[in-house]
Amino acid sequence: MCEAHFAHCVLGLLGPRPSESAVSDTRTTIVLNPLRSEDEAFRFLLYTFVAIAVIVGLVFALRALI
Amino acid sequence: MEAASIAHTAGHGEHHGPPTAHRSSRVEAQLLGMLLFIVSEVMIFAAFFTAYFFIRIASGEPWPAPGTHLPEDVAGVNTAILMSSSFTLHWAQTSIKKGNRFGLKAGILTTFLLGCTFLFIQINEYANIGFAPQDHAQQTIFYSLTGLHGAHVFIGLCLLLFVTIRSFRGHYSPEEHRGVEIPGIYWHFVDIMWIVVYTTVYVL
Predict the structure, then answer these.
(1) Residues of A38-48 as b/e, b for ≥16 C-beta within 10 angstroms?
(2) ipTM value
(3) Can you give the pTM of this predicted structure?
(4) Would residue B109 count as lying in a domain?
């Protein structure tokens, strides 16, 4: 009984995670992974656009000052 | 060992033992394939950007070279077109998740047409830009970077063509639409790369 339980624990450590579709996972996560789903890729696109717009604005402002 | 794991699965409805051979236990194979492909393409772009920054900064020459004019306005319109295509693609994806097949077809067809428009404008720009790739190192890297991106757009259009045809044939459903999602991830990657290319080559 103990051996079976021990083997189950070891195999559980080596086995796969509970079934979870990486494609359909749309939970809000702290880290945005644009390669996980289309939703996150689209959000990453929007964030990138905003970030680059800010950087371009800063560069133009610095060029105007200098 | 595989037979034993299958027997376990059949008996308990839950997988025991090591994962299936040649398969990730955490990421679906199709998504993993696209993930690895995009990572490799990012590395290629990184190499080209390295060359671009070397030519632009290390050479000490002004960018663009005197007598050369880069069509920022046309490229700006192209940027708007490509961004719009990402919105329509997201619309298509959201539609099929809700079972709205009309939204899927309209969105994916619009995305494809916008992508074709982008590529057509890019090719037209090459024909009218006024310099050739072999004229100067700056011109070479300009054509290389934008041409590399154009090749990626072409690949994306091929994928979108398959998706469009399959959408009109009714192959996708709210339960199964990986064929829309995975090319969608690639298309957004292409859009992100264009924003970076446009900013560094045309704007800054």
Answers:
(1) bbbbbebbeeb
(2) 0.83
(3) 0.80
(4) yes
